[in-house]
Amino acid sequence: MMKPVQPDRAPQTLAQKLIARAAGRDFVTHGEIVNCQVDLAMFHDSSGPRRLKPMLEELGAPIWDKSRVVLVMDHYVPAQDEDSKRIVRIARDWAREQDLPHVYDSQGICHVVLPQNGHIVPGRFCVGGDSHSPTGGAFGAYMFGIGSTEMLGVVVTGEIWVQVPQTIRMIWDGVLQKGVCAKDMMLAMTQRFGMNGGGYQAIEYAGSTVKALSMPERMTLSNMSAELGAQVGLVAPDEVTRQWLGQLDQPVNLDPTDIHHWQTDEGAETQDHHFDGAALSPMVAAPHSPANTRAVSEFAAQSIQVAYVGACTGAKHADMRAAASVLSGQRVAQGVNLLVAPASLRDLALAKADGTHQILKDAGAQFLPSACGACAGYGNTIKGDVNVISTTARNFKGRMGDPQSQVFLASPYTVGASALRGRVTDPRTILNTP
Amino acid sequence: MSDVTQTVITTGRAWCLGPNVDTDALAPGHAMSKGIEVIARHCLEDVRPEFSTRVQAGDCLVAGAGFGIGSSREQAASVLVTLGVRAVIAPSFSGLYFRNAFNVGLLLVTCPRATDVADGDALTVAIDPRDGVTVASAQLGPLEVSPIPDFLLRRVLLGGLLNELKELKLKEKHV
């Protein structure tokens, strides 16, 4: 006879464990609504002070715990016009007034700056005032995006409700081909499941392919969980996580128990999908949806005028290296404008240190500030009726600033290869040529 | 919802839209540095250019699946409140947009048959103490909808989370 399972002994998913801890419970059940204590609340110049300050004043309420708040100026910097200047000024003045301990002004994009400064570690429960906040899930933290009014609630009470999600496991096995990377995996998933296929549940990326990915690559998967409509996109922490956090300027030293506990238990209830990493080809999403994806070979005749390596999704040091590996010793095709906006100043410094920056410059790249830039279409936009191939996450109509433009999403390898040829190009054709 | 008597949220005209209406279509990036009144003038400019000038207080949006996908910018929900839209009815919503909408006082109703509703149909949306949220179309009759947790219905009736927090603050003062 089978022993009855004690609720607190039943196998749990990583998502359940993370929520249970934040809710002060031993166990939470799928579908129940619980209140969680927030370990970290991040917001930026657009979603943060300009919206929060007036509401806090209207309420007459203070910030619940300033040590748990992180402010990043990345959307409207460097300020392009009067409105942008005003928004950035509000953020700077408010940060000073409030004496906030964690402020990153013009240091890079929030989702990359946060982990690089040790704010995201396994087991934490975090919210961000930006839809790509699931990026934090790459470190085994429960992190999701919320709007400004909900952020007000967090900033005042330190709490937020969640409905305990089901876990959808995306299990990838096999070794990726040279020139194929996490971005291609992600575009293959948006193609298969659509932009709301995650149904606001928890996605967990697993399998040997995922285990073999570096932290920046895992961040790309978690980041674009937003494009699958998931609440979070988790990767269970392991030795790769521990080593990456240990090499930061201000290292985070994880205890082995920090890793062992934050795993989905054997036998936990999950919905599993399997993928063959070895068979994956570079993928491209055509206008105007990240789900409008096909294999790169189907775009062979597509000309491009702008190649953009940017955003939290696609301009980390590893992404710039990938683009540089294709462009090394060569120049972009005539008439192609290659733009590179490193995700953070740290990523830019790493690119300078290992020669990536020089390779890209020699190839004709124009470097832009480490900020959200054209990705959000808020500041530095790409104007006109042009075809853009981009490492960013979204290609909604008008997203990069002009409804006339046609934006194709691809990996940094594919963007580099396409810049070289002036048309959408499979990077394997360049990398495999001796 | 034992503390609520039946509240008719609206009887208004249905504006029909396709699937996957994204946040950037509702609140375009180029207008995001402005105040909500200005962003509202650009709401759906690439999808239904006449929308922001013709919509009337009490109207409803009826959309295909995946309404509100994309950004966390809650202006994508606030613009509809600003324009007088009382409810959005669709077979499914982005989870993030769903939270934002209730936080700014916009009712979202998940309705599998939303795509059967014709443009210009009259919709009556109500919140009932026993049945929760109900939607009836003049042409199709009552429509089956998914239940919404009581705390979210209460939040919408209060006009959003800010008002709820104010109420909480008042109660604290009394204690």
Structure summarized in a few sentences:
The complex is a heterodimer of chains A (434) and B (175). Chain A is of the alpha/beta class and 434 residues long.
Q: What is the second-level CATH architecture of chain B?
A: Alpha-Beta Barrel
Distance between the termini of chain B: 24 Å
Evaluate the radius of gyration of chain B. Answer: 16 Å
**Structural class designation of chain A:** alpha/beta
Radius of gyration of chain A: 21 Å
Mean pLDDT of chain B: 94
Total of domains of chain B: 1
| Shape by Cα distribution of chain A | globular
Low-confidence stretches of chain A: 1-5
User: Could you describe the largest sheet of chain A, including whether it forms a barrel?
Assistant: 5 strands, parallel
The number of distinct β-strands of chain B equals 7
Strand order of the largest sheet of chain B: 4-3-2-1-5-6-7
Reading off the top of the CATH hierarchy, the class of chain B is best stated as Alpha Beta
Strand order of the biggest β-sheet of chain A: 4-3-2-5-6
Report on this model:
The complex is a heterodimer of chains A (434) and B (175). With 434 residues, chain A is an alpha/beta fold. Helix content of chain A is 32%, strand content 18%. Chain A has three domains: 34-163, Aconitase, domain 3 (2-Layer Sandwich); 166-257 and 268-278, 3-Layer(aba) Sandwich (Aconitase, Domain 2); 283-431, Aconitase, domain 3 (2-Layer Sandwich), CATH 3.30.499.10. Chain A has 16 helices and 18 strands. In chain A, helix 2 links the parallel strand 2 and strand 3 (69-73). The longest helix of chain A has 17 residues, at 82-98. The N and C termini of chain A lie far apart (63 Å). In chain A, 59% of the residues are buried. Chain B has 175 residues and is α/β, with parallel strands linked by helices. Chain B has a single domain, classed as Aconitase, domain 4. Chain B has helices at residues 23-26, 36-41, 51-54, 75-82, 95-103, 150-158, 161-174; strands at residues 7-16, 60-62, 87-90, 107-110, 122-128, 132-137, 141-143. A seven-stranded mixed sheet of chain B has the order 4-3-2-1-5-6-7. The radius of gyration of chain B is 16 Å and the shape is globular. The A-B interface holds A 33, 46-47, 55, 58-61, 76, 81, 83-84, 87, 128-131, 133, 144-150, 152-153, 156-157, 161, 194-196, 199-200, 226, 229, 231, 289, 376-378, 381, 394, 396-399, 401, 403 and B 20, 22, 24-25, 28-30, 32-34, 46, 65-66, 69-74, 77, 92, 94-96, 98-100, 103-104, 149, 151, 160-162, 165-166, 169.
